[in-house]
């Protein structure tokens, strides 16, 4: 009797161990095939010159679907009825859908981003209070990379519900800088210096023409507003270069940049008492 039980247990172990090994093999081979198929599809997409943003999004969806098929095949190899499994998945999916409605709203938002194209990969945008270059758009989130190489992951649902500022959409940007000079300084000379430096800067566009005008009259200074147009990718370079070159030129020509002043009047209380 004991020998029969041992043989039965051993046969069950042998049978299921082979199935488990087979399922592991299906997962490993399937994963390898998914990688190969994904590479092939990626090459086809590149050769078809499809938009980079759309191709990246489609590739993520295809990979997810293929891996789901591999996992179902591995489970079916264990002897689990796939029809029952799919039905169970449907019921579980309904429960998960209620619990993770925000996640599925992010997927829907991802499709809206791809369809309406408010931005594409490598665009520099500001959304949800942060700025950065678009590094990746997937089903759930959009990944930005800041100028100091921080990675910011924003859910797609939050992006769709926020105002989106795309700095790369038009190809050019306007740099606006305010330069403050003393009331005693030569206003026309200051304007000429700024415009001549703008003309020398190769990254500043000739059209629209650079502009310098009196933006406001402050308490301690005349505030000159300078506006220059440049390529979107040159925005920071132009801003830094003009700030530095104008400061050096002002110093050389004796034009001062006044600092805020505070006048304090002191009155002796004893003198008030005498009167």
From TrEMBL:
<dbReference type="Pfam" id="PF21082">
    <property type="entry name" value="MS_channel_3rd"/>
</dbReference>
<keyword id="KW-0472">Membrane</keyword>
<feature type="domain" description="Mechanosensitive ion channel MscS">
    <location>
        <begin position="102"/>
        <end position="169"/>
    </location>
</feature>
<dbReference type="InterPro" id="IPR010920">
    <property type="entry name" value="LSM_dom_sf"/>
</dbReference>
<dbReference type="InterPro" id="IPR049278">
    <property type="entry name" value="MS_channel_C"/>
</dbReference>
<dbReference type="InterPro" id="IPR045275">
    <property type="entry name" value="MscS_archaea/bacteria_type"/>
</dbReference>
<feature type="domain" description="Mechanosensitive ion channel MscS C-terminal">
    <location>
        <begin position="175"/>
        <end position="257"/>
    </location>
</feature>
<dbReference type="InterPro" id="IPR049142">
    <property type="entry name" value="MS_channel_1st"/>
</dbReference>
<keyword id="KW-0812">Transmembrane</keyword>
<protein>
    <submittedName>
        <fullName>Mechanosensitive ion channel</fullName>
    </submittedName>
</protein>
<dbReference type="InterPro" id="IPR011014">
    <property type="entry name" value="MscS_channel_TM-2"/>
</dbReference>
<dbReference type="InterPro" id="IPR023408">
    <property type="entry name" value="MscS_beta-dom_sf"/>
</dbReference>
<dbReference type="Pfam" id="PF05552">
    <property type="entry name" value="MS_channel_1st_1"/>
</dbReference>
<comment type="similarity">
    <text>Belongs to the MscS (TC 1.A.23) family.</text>
</comment>
<dbReference type="GO" id="GO:0008381">
    <property type="term" value="F:mechanosensitive monoatomic ion channel activity"/>
</dbReference>
<keyword id="KW-1133">Transmembrane helix</keyword>
<dbReference type="GO" id="GO:0005886">
    <property type="term" value="C:plasma membrane"/>
</dbReference>
<feature type="transmembrane region" description="Helical">
    <location>
        <begin position="54"/>
        <end position="76"/>
    </location>
</feature>
<dbReference type="InterPro" id="IPR006685">
    <property type="entry name" value="MscS_channel_2nd"/>
</dbReference>
<dbReference type="Pfam" id="PF21088">
    <property type="entry name" value="MS_channel_1st"/>
</dbReference>
<dbReference type="InterPro" id="IPR011066">
    <property type="entry name" value="MscS_channel_C_sf"/>
</dbReference>
<feature type="domain" description="Mechanosensitive ion channel transmembrane helices 2/3">
    <location>
        <begin position="60"/>
        <end position="101"/>
    </location>
</feature>
<dbReference type="Pfam" id="PF00924">
    <property type="entry name" value="MS_channel_2nd"/>
</dbReference>
<dbReference type="InterPro" id="IPR008910">
    <property type="entry name" value="MSC_TM_helix"/>
</dbReference>
<feature type="transmembrane region" description="Helical">
    <location>
        <begin position="16"/>
        <end position="34"/>
    </location>
</feature>
<keyword id="KW-1003">Cell membrane</keyword>
